[in-house]
Amino acid sequence: MELSIIIPTLNEEHYLPLLLKSIKKQTFTDYEIIVADAGSQDKTVTIAQSFGGRLTKGGLPAQGRNEGAKIARGNLFLFTDADNIFTSPNFLYDLIKQFRERNLGSASFLIYSDGNRLDKILYLFYNLWVKLTQNLLPHATNSVLVRRDIHQKIGGFDEKIKIAEDQEYVRRAVRYGKFGFIEVDPVLNSCRRYRAQGRIKTYLKYFLSGMVMFFSGPIKSDIFKYRFDYQKVLKKNNNK
Fold this sequence. Notes:
By secondary structure, the protein is an alpha/beta fold. The protein has one domain (3-238): Spore Coat Polysaccharide Biosynthesis Protein SpsA, Chain A (Alpha-Beta Complex), CATH 3.90.550. The chain contains ten helices and eight strands. The radius of gyration is 17 Å and the shape is globular.
């Protein structure tokens, strides 16, 4: 099998079917879908099964990605969030084709926002920044394509990191293979976090965390108090 698509979830009954429908429309078909669920209380698991997804336990996103990788059968892993949508039916075909042609070990790619004008402008700048710095300082969006052997060599995602674990992941991955930014038809990403937590506050956290990572390394303390909805629901589930 060529590709394992690994999706961490928790109560994603609204967004997950949109992503899975976009996957099912792909012209590239040599893939499996793995959903690493953190104990959803809605229809997430049922939806994943209805699309033929394989299920495993999850947790916070880094843990979910690692758990999904443990049962994956593909030569390549595509880690993606549940609130993404592949906008073109040729997305996977073009992505893997360029990945192979450029002999990459890990990669990120164009991602656009479903939000307002500010979101769209900032995402454009982000995509440009990743493109310009791909050979110097790898950046990952919330999606990463990586070779199986590299994921295994670096020991997966660091589950102790509080924010930007995907950035730290690709910066370790370049020790074993070249990182590249692939320009394919974009992935559409939900701006639900910005709407819920405030745009300025959230973007500022991303910017400052990037500066801290650059000068001090991975962020394993809770200085930014960065929260996923996962934390609240997992705590509630654990207290039952």
